[in-house]
Write a structure and sequence with these properties.
Layout lengths: L3 E7 L12 H5 L1 H5 L3 E10 L9 E5 L2 E8 L1 H20 L10 H19 L7 E5 L6 H7 L6 E4 L7 H4 L5 H9 L3 E4 L2 H13 L6 E3 L6 H12 L2 H9 L4 E6 L8 H14 L7 E6 L8 H21 L7 E4 L5 H10 L2 E4 L8 H9 L7 E5 L12 E3 L4 H13 L2 H17 L2 H14 L5
Parallel strand pairs: 1-2, 1-5, 2-4, 5-6, 6-7, 7-8, 9-10, 9-12, 10-11, 12-13, 13-14
Antiparallel strand pairs: 3-4
Length: 447
């Protein structure tokens, strides 16, 4: 096997190249440590003369990070409008939020052509190319069209909808044809695999699709949580709770995360189980992302209003039911807070995997573990049936689960946590990348 070529919309930020902090960087850490790797993607910068600017490169250990610039038009139409304004809501079943224009679709394919043109000259015959995520659905075929004959794999980190939903996308056949040029397509769950296979079959396309759920590095995250739990930052936050039970949610600001529904579930807990009033605090950490997209701005306004309404209705001079911040909190502090939390509250309407759920389990104190309340629509749910599984559209059902979690005895909590921790330890970030690359290596390139 020659070099590993990782292609993603963005490469890790310079600070994450030596200290992986989460997501794809952690997931690929083991793979890039064991072989020569080129990681290729957009630099994050826009320039009017982007086409005339050379690629930039930085060697860090085994990895050569190579980036290039886009124009402002490409960023707006390819990234904001089509990738995040069309494909993201489509794949998360939120078809009412799709804002499709032919100009944006054309720009999406044009930007993928830029990726292909910039990348192809860097490739060697025995390279293995691994493309990541929905920004780059057509890239496999574009590389084939430029003469690339080696193995090409693709991994989709978000859900994929069934044919009945996906068919709403104009030119879906073109997108799937581009994707089918890859030798292996990985997705997070068996449901996603079934959905994608059904779409290929609808167009008479043949493609190898495999469910390969991504994990975390539970050992290092657990150690980070143990060390952070006694840090000054975490102790200070816990002191402000004045002995109340801690329910914790951590999500990027996104309509797929079920955040308004989560607030309503917590409100139902206070309404239906008044014994918890003054005894529990809900900390929701929600860093803002894609603030320029209208749907995200409206979501923030809705959350701001819900938090104010609930705190106004139930709060007292010495107790605030919901602590809510849109400021990012350091990963090491979050790890310590997970360990101290009594309940992890994870309620996506639909997502690819949800690594927060796995991090919460990894962080727990074995002798006194917290309880995970988890949406059955999270990608992690099939791997974690011992969690208290809920439907995020059912506020009363979420309230019941929160009450059970807050009152569950230590033996029941330990039994559920132990089973989930075993699964989190078995299916790790390292095993994910190895499983996918092993499967890709076993496939004879069809081009």
């Amino acid at each position: 096997m020659g070099r590993l070529i990782i292609v993603s919309n963005r490469t890790p930020a310079p600070g994450e190249r030596t200290q992986p902090a989460g997501g794809l960087t952690v997931g690929l850490y083991d793979a890039v440590q064991t072989q020569e790797t080129l990681w290729f993607g957009w630099s994050g910068h826009q320039h009017a003369d982007a086409a005339d600017r050379p690629v930039q490169s930085e060697q860090v250990g085994n990895v050569n990070y190579v980036t290039f610039d886009l124009t402002q038009r490409q960023y707006d139409r390819f990234y904001l409008n089509f990738s995040n304004g069309v494909l993201w809501p489509l794949c998360h079943y939120r078809t009412n939020l799709i804002r499709y224009t032919r100009e944006d679709c054309d720009a999406y394919y044009e930007a993928n052509e830029v990726f292909a043109d910039r990348l192809v000259g860097l490739l060697e015959p025995d390279d293995t190319v691994w493309i990541h995520d929905y920004h780059l659905f057509p890239l496999g075929k574009m590389l084939r069209d430029r003469g690339v004959t080696g193995r090409i794999g693709f991994f989709l980190h978000i859900p994929f909808p069934p044919w009945s939903v996906a068919r709403l996308l104009p030119k879906l056949d073109m997108l799937l044809t581009g994707l089918a040029a890859c030798d292996l397509i990985g997705v997070q769950t068996p449901e996603d695999a079934t959905n994608l296979k059904g779409c290929f079959e609808a167009y008479g396309l043949k493609a190898a699709v495999e469910a390969v759920p991504i994990g975390i590095d539970p050992v290092s995250f657990r150690q980070q949580a143990i060390e952070s739990a006694s840090s000054d930052e975490v102790v200070k936050i816990m002191d402000t709770l004045e002995g109340t039970h801690l329910i914790m949610g951590v999500d990027r600001l996104d309509y797929s995360k079920g955040l308004p529904e989560r607030m309503k579930g917590f409100e139902a807990l206070l309404k239906n189980y008044p014994e918890h009033r003054g005894q529990v605090t809900f900390l929701q950490v929600t860093p803002v992302s894609r603030g320029g997209v209208e749907s995200y701005r409206l979501l923030k306004e809705e959350l701001d209003g819900l938090v104010g309404t609930i705190n106004g209705a139930y709060g007292t001079p010495d107790w605030v039911p919901i602590r809510y911040t849109t400021w990012p909190i350091g990963r090491h502090i979050l790890a310590g807070l997970y360990r101290m939390a009594d309940v992890g509250f994870v309620t996506p309407l639909r997502d690819g995997m949800n690594l927060v759920a796995k991090e919460f389990i990894a962080a727990q104190d074995e002798d006194d573990p917290g309880v995970l309340v988890l949406s059955r629509f999270a990608g992690a749910a099939p791997e974690m049936p011992e969690a208290l599984l809920i439907n995020p559209l059912d506020a009363e059902g979420m309230a019941d689960a929160l009450h059970i979690g807050l009152t569950m005895d230590v033996h029941a909590r330990h039994a559920a946590w132990s089973a989930m921790y075993d699964e989190v330890s078995r299916n790790t970030a390292g095993s994910w990348s190895k499983q996918f690359l092993d499967s890709l290596e076993a496939i004879r390139p069809c081009h």
